[in-house]
Amino acid sequence: MNIELPIIPAGVLMLLALFAPYVIGALNGVLLFIAKPWQKKALAIAVAVVLAVLVLAFYYLYTGDALPEWPVLVLLAVVVVQASYALITKPTASAVERHFTSGETLRRDIR
Hints:
Radius of gyration: 16 Å
Helix content: over 70%
Shape: elongated
Structural class: mainly alpha
Strand content: under 5%
Number of strands: 0
């Protein structure tokens, strides 16, 4: 079974997913009812799925072709968002979350 993803939607999704932890951190800080770890994880997955849906919708509107491999693209979004947070953006995304939670300056949190 070969899974073929178009390069442009997969590339756009990967680039956007690398920066998604900052959006997730801001949402964690702004949405006060998200306090438990499972809620933060659910929000991260929801943001990844919404990101994949946006990329799929843009691709469909631009080309008129629907991707039959859309579940793979959604899983790719979840994996890249989580890997981006774990490997690259954890310190700065956590600083963004603290900034939106407490209102401190972002520059002080990053140090």
